[in-house]
Design brief:
It contains one helix and ten strands. The longest helix is centred in the first third of the chain and has 8 residues. The strands form three sheets. It has a four-stranded mixed β-sheet, with no helix packed on it. A three-stranded antiparallel β-sheet has the order 1-4-5. It is mostly beta strands and 110 residues long. Helices cover 7% and strands 42% of the residues.
Length: 110
Protein backbone atom coordinates (compact mmCIF):
# COMPACT_ATOMS: atom_id res chain seq x y z
CA UNK A 1 0.00 0.00 0.00
CA UNK A 2 1.15 3.51 -0.78
CA UNK A 3 2.23 5.54 2.26
CA UNK A 4 0.72 9.03 2.53
CA UNK A 5 2.98 12.07 2.28
CA UNK A 6 3.94 13.85 5.52
CA UNK A 7 1.49 16.69 4.80
CA UNK A 8 -1.37 14.22 4.22
CA UNK A 9 -0.35 12.28 7.33
CA UNK A 10 -0.74 15.47 9.41
CA UNK A 11 -4.21 16.01 7.95
CA UNK A 12 -5.28 12.42 8.68
CA UNK A 13 -4.42 12.77 12.33
CA UNK A 14 -5.88 16.28 12.59
CA UNK A 15 -9.49 15.46 11.94
CA UNK A 16 -10.41 13.45 8.84
CA UNK A 17 -14.18 13.54 9.25
CA UNK A 18 -15.36 11.83 6.10
CA UNK A 19 -14.48 10.80 2.56
CA UNK A 20 -16.78 11.39 -0.40
CA UNK A 21 -16.62 9.89 -3.89
CA UNK A 22 -17.65 11.58 -7.10
CA UNK A 23 -19.46 10.94 -9.24
CA UNK A 24 -21.91 9.42 -6.76
CA UNK A 25 -23.64 7.52 -9.59
CA UNK A 26 -22.16 6.29 -12.86
CA UNK A 27 -23.16 3.94 -15.67
CA UNK A 28 -20.68 1.98 -17.78
CA UNK A 29 -20.82 -0.84 -20.31
CA UNK A 30 -19.16 -4.19 -19.54
CA UNK A 31 -15.45 -3.85 -20.25
CA UNK A 32 -15.51 -0.14 -19.41
CA UNK A 33 -13.67 1.74 -16.68
CA UNK A 34 -14.80 4.17 -14.01
CA UNK A 35 -12.43 6.46 -12.12
CA UNK A 36 -13.80 8.25 -9.09
CA UNK A 37 -12.37 11.25 -7.29
CA UNK A 38 -12.10 10.90 -3.52
CA UNK A 39 -12.26 14.03 -1.37
CA UNK A 40 -11.26 14.04 2.29
CA UNK A 41 -13.23 16.41 4.51
CA UNK A 42 -11.31 17.59 7.57
CA UNK A 43 -12.10 19.73 10.58
CA UNK A 44 -12.22 23.45 9.91
CA UNK A 45 -13.79 22.96 6.46
CA UNK A 46 -10.53 21.81 4.86
CA UNK A 47 -10.82 19.46 1.87
CA UNK A 48 -8.04 17.44 0.23
CA UNK A 49 -7.94 15.17 -2.81
CA UNK A 50 -7.19 11.68 -1.43
CA UNK A 51 -7.89 9.72 -4.62
CA UNK A 52 -4.51 7.97 -4.86
CA UNK A 53 -4.10 7.31 -1.11
CA UNK A 54 -7.17 5.14 -0.49
CA UNK A 55 -8.11 1.47 -0.80
CA UNK A 56 -11.17 0.88 -3.02
CA UNK A 57 -13.64 -2.01 -2.90
CA UNK A 58 -16.68 -3.23 -4.81
CA UNK A 59 -19.72 -4.78 -3.13
CA UNK A 60 -20.27 -7.03 -6.15
CA UNK A 61 -17.11 -8.36 -7.86
CA UNK A 62 -19.25 -10.04 -10.55
CA UNK A 63 -20.24 -6.52 -11.68
CA UNK A 64 -17.20 -4.37 -10.85
CA UNK A 65 -13.70 -4.95 -9.51
CA UNK A 66 -11.31 -2.57 -7.78
CA UNK A 67 -7.72 -3.65 -8.56
CA UNK A 68 -6.11 -0.81 -6.50
CA UNK A 69 -3.22 -0.41 -8.92
CA UNK A 70 -0.48 2.00 -7.79
CA UNK A 71 -0.87 5.29 -9.65
CA UNK A 72 -4.41 4.40 -10.75
CA UNK A 73 -5.97 3.39 -7.45
CA UNK A 74 -9.49 4.67 -8.13
CA UNK A 75 -9.85 2.63 -11.33
CA UNK A 76 -12.94 0.43 -11.24
CA UNK A 77 -13.35 -2.23 -13.93
CA UNK A 78 -16.91 -2.89 -15.13
CA UNK A 79 -17.01 -6.65 -15.69
CA UNK A 80 -20.67 -7.75 -15.78
CA UNK A 81 -24.18 -6.35 -15.85
CA UNK A 82 -25.78 -5.19 -12.60
CA UNK A 83 -25.00 -2.71 -9.85
CA UNK A 84 -22.17 -2.44 -7.36
CA UNK A 85 -21.51 -0.11 -4.47
CA UNK A 86 -17.98 1.33 -4.59
CA UNK A 87 -16.37 2.24 -1.27
CA UNK A 88 -13.04 3.81 -0.36
CA UNK A 89 -11.13 3.52 2.92
CA UNK A 90 -8.14 5.42 4.29
CA UNK A 91 -6.25 2.52 5.84
CA UNK A 92 -4.20 4.63 8.27
CA UNK A 93 -7.28 6.02 10.02
CA UNK A 94 -9.93 3.47 9.04
CA UNK A 95 -12.23 6.25 7.81
CA UNK A 96 -14.44 4.94 5.01
CA UNK A 97 -17.04 6.30 2.62
CA UNK A 98 -19.38 3.66 4.03
CA UNK A 99 -19.21 5.29 7.50
CA UNK A 100 -21.12 8.35 6.28
CA UNK A 101 -23.14 7.02 3.35
CA UNK A 102 -20.76 8.49 0.79
CA UNK A 103 -20.19 5.32 -1.26
CA UNK A 104 -20.66 5.54 -5.04
CA UNK A 105 -23.01 3.42 -7.13
CA UNK A 106 -21.84 1.90 -10.41
CA UNK A 107 -24.42 0.48 -12.80
CA UNK A 108 -23.09 -1.75 -15.55
CA UNK A 109 -25.37 -2.38 -18.51
CA UNK A 110 -25.49 -2.82 -22.25
Amino acid sequence: AQSPSPSLRRLFFNGLLRISLSPANATRSPGGLQRDTATGHFGGGITQNLTQTLDYASSNPAVATAPNIAGDRSRIDAVGEGTATISATQLTTGVSTTDTGDDALLTVGP
